[in-house]
Write a structure and sequence with these properties.
The structure is a homodimer. The first copy, chain A, is of the alpha+beta class. The first copy, chain A, has a domain at 17-89 and 141-204: 3-Layer(aba) Sandwich (NADH Oxidase). The first copy, chain A, contains ten helices and five strands. Chain A has helices at residues 3-14, 29-40, 59-66, 73-78, 90-93, 98-107, 112-129, 136-160, 173-182, 215-218; strands spanning 51-56, 81-88, 164-168, 191-200, 219-221. Chain A has a four-stranded antiparallel β-sheet with strand order 1-2-4-3, sandwiched between helices. The radius of gyration of chain A is 19 Å and the shape is globular. At the A-B interface, helix 1, helix 2, strand 1, helix 7 and helix 8 of A face helix 1, helix 2, strand 1, helix 7 and helix 8 of B.
């Protein structure tokens, strides 16, 4: 087996949900920049990047988050970097929003006629194909799905660099939304919390072997 | 900058949504096995792996999918490997389901008391923290989010191997669900279609430079 295949398998085997980070070890600026760039270059549906990433370093703010995010406590204590990924709400992701116009015009630099066709396609996708406009939640969860690509790419970049991580859904969404709004970190009209992650270096041996269903239970060839 | 940082950045820059695959080029078995293993080792909430992966190779079946999946047509024509990722429905992911019991007992090998604590925690997570049981859709979209980690890891593993890919949301969910059920590829009680992807080698130059919002619009440091 050649080197890159093995490098990939090693990284995915190295990664586990780190429960105890070594608080004395920091991820270097160069490495964290690489992890952020993996997030930044992540694909998203129609290229709309419906997300924002908070890198939380302030001790006081972390302390307040602690009690409403049970799954984040180990990362808040020991991880070198703590990240909260936000997803955009329907207000921003609906086909005729200012945000979608901004991305097509200012970021993707589409000529007007191309943008107009694209918006029509996106409208049909939202209204018909994925039925995303039926509720605030359906639209938000769609944007949130895109953020799980960001999450995965950050975890994988970290693992390739020998950096541990912990993906985190263990928090009360409503409380965290309110907290982030109160702290001035998020405008609830545009964003909601999607998922979190800690990055650093393990201060433990992994608790147990990685367990997975047999590949034959997961993959169907036809 | 050391080699691994550069390797990661190169891979994320190499990846783009390939619109035209070279139908004469195939991904080797070794490489596709690595891509599948990246999927297989993907993390999921509570480790419940609420997904299944269909590798679709049969020409007749592909032809039938063609008309209900506009975003998949280029991949169905030219990609070496075509993948449909399914997500599990509430029937399987609700805290007291047979599926959850199966994973905790047969895969994660948890002792009864550990599994029982875990199930209580998962129940509270579903009922309170993420309010996932409010609808079939909310529960399904949560499982679907986990499949976007699988998707991302397959795309990244491919990119690291110099293999092109195209992530695909361009299809009618209802039609594809019915199609997969009719083909005997999916039991609608347990699964729904989440997302698709093609893998192969580009038969085109990428249409345009990768566009992204400036990192400063996407990342908040606090």
């Amino acid at each position: 087996m050649n080197t890159m295949n093995q490098t990939i398998l090693n990284a995915f085997n190295f990664r586990y949900a780190c429960k105890q980070f070594d608080p004395k070890k920091s991820v270097s600026k160069e490495d964290f920049d690489t992890i952020l760039e993996a997030a930044h270059l992540s694909p998203s549906s129609f290229g709309f990047e419906p997300w924002k990433i908070i890198v939380l370093q302030d001790a006081e703010t972390k302390k307040k988050l602690y009690s409403i995010a049970w799954g984040a406590q180990n990362s808040l204590k020991g991880a070198s970097h703590f990240v909260i990924i936000l997803a955009r709400k329907k207000f921003d992701t609906i086909y005729n929003s200012n945000y979608i116009t901004h991305i097509m015009k200012d970021i993707q630099h589409m000529p007007n006629n191309v943008a107009s066709d694209r918006r029509e396609k996106f409208k049909r996708f939202q209204q018909v194909d994925f039925n995303l406009l039926e509720s605030e939640r359906a639209a938000f969860d769609w944007a949130s799905k895109q953020t799980y690509i960001v999450l995965a790419n950050m975890l994988t970049a970290a693992a390739l660099l020998g950096i541990d991580s912990c993906p985190i859904e263990g928090f009360n969404r409503e409380s965290v939304d309110r907290f982030l709004a109160d702290e001035g970190l998020m405008d609830e009209k545009h964003f909601g919390v999607s998922v979190m992650a800690g990055f650093g270096y393990r201060g433990e041996a992994p608790h147990r072997e990685k367990t997975r269903q047999p590949l034959s239970d997961v993959v169907i060839w036809k």
